[in-house]
Design brief:
By secondary structure, the protein is mostly helical. The protein has a domain at 2-118 and 131-158 and 234-338. Helix content is 72%, strand content 0%. The protein is globular.
Length: 360
């Protein structure tokens, strides 16, 4: 019984209960999805729901393409199908862990154990992908506020909404800045890693820290070398930025296609819907629960009420199923690749197969 009173089990129970409760509310309450499905006067354009599903799949494929470019530069044998596996497995663990913290470590594990990518190299490339992700998201968020500020001003409580968005920007900027410092300061990186290694040693998770210092230094050198290399090759970084931008647009367009499916005479344009979805993403990103459960649905109802009218609850539920529950369902089989994985991958691995490039 004590086992189930551990914090992680309590958190899991809270999140599952929250998700089930919200789903039942959006389905059975007045103007919920159940009412919509049983209303003969309301026609759902199912073809747009299918397009919304395909748009979510496109989001995952764009992400995989970014991984492919970053890893293949040092490992020519790395295939696009390998990148798809990394992307889908990471999507699953990000969806089921608080603040999406489980995705990157499991991706590093998969790259190391299956594709024989050096841990330091894989870590540097995934952190660079994360920073590109954050910077592109920040660009979209700022553009959305500038282009469609009237949406914020027209909300029921514009001051509260503006405050929440500002907090979202601050949080996002702080996280991005922290990763930049970690990426370009070898001394800071080493201090942080040694601090956490010794902390884990004290609580009996990591043993013989002193014996692993040389290995840690070796991986740090590989990590920072990978960071420097990526900025010396714009031909690689620019496509990743473009793919990441397309990735976000594909994800945000899911809501637009749901809008076309549910609203008989749609008047909003894609830019308006994308802007609102960016606001939802920014606000829900501050909630450290798996999938930002509760906050995502709340943000959706706040910003999209003016567009969906009496189909708002149905839209929120369909969006959540495609954007979150559907992703878990599709990517769950790939979680098997990390079955039994409980410890960080070993620092010992094959050296990166970086091809020598002729001088320009």
């Amino acid at each position: 019984m004590k086992r189930f009173l551990k914090p992680k089990y309590i958190l899991n129970a809270v999140v599952i209960g929250l998700c089930v409760g919200i789903t039942l509310y959006f389905f059975f309450s007045d103007d919920g999805l159940n009412s919509l499905l049983n209303n003969p006067e309301q026609n759902i354009a199912w073809q747009w729901i299918i397009v919304a599903l395909l748009s979510e799949v496109a989001y995952l494929m764009f992400e995989a393409a970014g991984f492919y470019i970053l890893i293949k530069d040092g490992y020519p044998d790395f295939r696009y199908i390998d990148a798809v596996k990394v992307s889908l497995m990471g999507a699953f663990w990000s969806a089921v862990t608080p603040s999406s913290t489980g995705g990157q470590p499991m991706q590093i594990y998969l790259l190391h154990s299956v594709n024989k990518v050096e841990v330091g190299y894989a870590t540097s490339r995934l952190i660079q992908k994360f920073m590109v992700y954050q910077l592109v998201l920040m660009f979209i968020n700022i553009s959305s506020v500038v282009i469609n500020f009237n949406i914020i001003r027209g909300s029921q409580n514009p001051r509260l909404v503006a405050l929440l968005l500002a907090l979202g920007f601050i949080t996002q900027s702080a996280i991005t800045g922290m990763f930049f410092m970690f990426s370009f300061s070898p001394k800071l990186s080493r201090k942080l890693i040694m601090f956490f290694a010794k902390l884990l040693n004290k609580i009996k998770i990591v043993k013989n820290v002193d014996e692993k210092i040389d290995s840690i230094d070796e991986q740090l050198e590989s990590f920072h070398t990978g960071n420097k290399d990526i900025y010396k090759t714009p031909r690689m970084l620019i496509p990743v930025i473009i793919l990441t931008f397309c990735q976000f647009i594909a994800m945000f367009l899911v809501t637009y296609f749901i809008y076309l499916a549910l609203v008989p005479n749609p008047t909003a344009n894609p830019v308006q819907i994308i802007s609102c979805q960016a606001y939802v993403n920014l606000m829900s990103g501050m909630v450290p629960l798996p999938g930002a459960s509760g906050a995502a649905e709340l943000g959706f109802t706040v910003f999209f009420s003016v567009f969906f009218g009496n189909t708002l609850k149905s839209a929120a539920l369909i969006w959540r199923f495609i954007n979150y529950y559907g992703v878990i369902f599709i990517t769950a089989p790939f979680a098997y690749m990390t079955k039994g994985k409980e410890e960080a991958p070993s620092a010992e691995s094959a050296e990166p197969k970086i091809e020598e490039k002729p001088n320009a």
